[in-house]
Write a sequence for this structure.
């Protein structure tokens, strides 16, 4: 039986071209700055984001942590959304490793944080308070329906940050999904952030890796912090080779994943017993709910798995399905048949 794995876009496997690029990659010791393939990826990534420099790291979590460690000192504060990946799913790393204080404020359903709430959260000068140093945004926003933040919104947050002497870090794990969905150059989304990290290993299908982009001095300091975390890698061109393929070949096709997500969502909306807001389908992430809250979503997950379809349970009655490379329109239709059958049976 074929498996249709919709749990996450992190399950994507490398393309044939990536495997070949990995095989043929020119390599050196990247801790000495001598891996030509990693150097090339970092150059391409910086250019793509419109930043001076870039550094490859092992994961999105490491990209965010290295960025926060580079912006903030111990006892300083990061302002971020209460639904953000950095707050919810990164093992409390900024406080565990950096002694940095997360100050959460409400994310709106579209992934934004209200400017007035950010303004109110920024601390005044008082010996009792941690110093506010950094604002973090997430684009696209994973827990907020894969919504895309506009360049205008990011600019308004950056302006507020600059007025108050703070910096902005953008967790752009899926920033290329945002650029494709909004029809803008990714540079426009990154322009107003002091640092941006993005993942090669999600919709772009690389097996491993993320990249942080920013000013040269910031990236030089990030290189030191990556080393502190044990993230200095040697012949990392093995990873970077796939990353170059990802950036050059896998961005435009994300539109296909967005179309498939919409197709899936429209199908789910028609299935009795399931509920979904079609106004909240922005990119490749589909959240849906059991219409009857008494019905356990876990049972549905098990029944679907028995039919070869994997989705993720993210709450008592809430499920998530993510479209990605390797999932075709036909797979979406098969997944909808399985969902219909599972709901009829239960
Ligand atoms: C928005 C966002 N940021 C960061 C990450 C962390 O990436 P990684 O799993 O590579 O550490 C994820 C992972 O799903 C994510 O969705």
């Amino acid at each position: 039986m074929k498996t249709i794995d919709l749990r996450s876009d992190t399950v994507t496997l490398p393309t044939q071209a990536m495997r070949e690029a990995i095989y043929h990659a020119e390599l050196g010791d990247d801790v000495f700055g001598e891996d030509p393939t990693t150097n090339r990826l970092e150059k391409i990534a910086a250019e793509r984001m419109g930043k001076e420099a870039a550094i490859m790291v092992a994961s999105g979590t490491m990209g965010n942590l290295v960025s926060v460690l580079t912006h903030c000192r111990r006892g300083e504060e990061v302002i971020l959304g209460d639904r953000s990946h950095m707050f919810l799913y990164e093992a409390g790393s900024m406080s565990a490793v950096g002694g940095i204080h997360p100050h959460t404020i409400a994310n709106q359903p579209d992934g934004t944080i209200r400017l007035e709430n950010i303004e109110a959260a920024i601390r005044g000068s008082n010996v009792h308070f941690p110093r506010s140093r950094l604002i973090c945004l997430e684009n696209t926003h994973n827990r907020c329906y894969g919504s895309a933040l506009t360049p205008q919104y990011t600019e308004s947050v950056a302006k507020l940050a600059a007025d108050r002497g703070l910096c902005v870090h953008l967790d752009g794990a899926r920033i290329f999904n945002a650029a494709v969905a909004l029809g803008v150059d990714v540079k426009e989304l990154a322009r107003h952030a002091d640092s941006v990290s993005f993942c090669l290993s999600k919709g772009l299908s690389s097996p491993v890796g993320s990249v942080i982009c920013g000013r040269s001095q910031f990236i030089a300091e990030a290189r030191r912090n990556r080393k502190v975390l044990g993230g200095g890698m040697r012949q990392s061109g093995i990873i970077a080779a796939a990353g170059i393929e990802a950036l050059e070949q896998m961005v435009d096709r994300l539109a296909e994943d967005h179309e498939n997500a919409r197709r899936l969502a429209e199908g789910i909306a028609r299935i009795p017993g399931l509920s979904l807001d079609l106004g909240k389908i922005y990119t490749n992430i589909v959240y849906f709910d059991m219409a009857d809250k008494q019905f356990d979503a876990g049972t549905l997950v098990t029944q679907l798995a028995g039919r070869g379809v994997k989705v993720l349970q993210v709450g008592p009655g809430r499920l998530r399905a993510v479209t990605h490379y390797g999932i075709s329109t036909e797979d979406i239709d098969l997944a909808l048949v399985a969902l219909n059958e599972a709901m009829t049976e239960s």
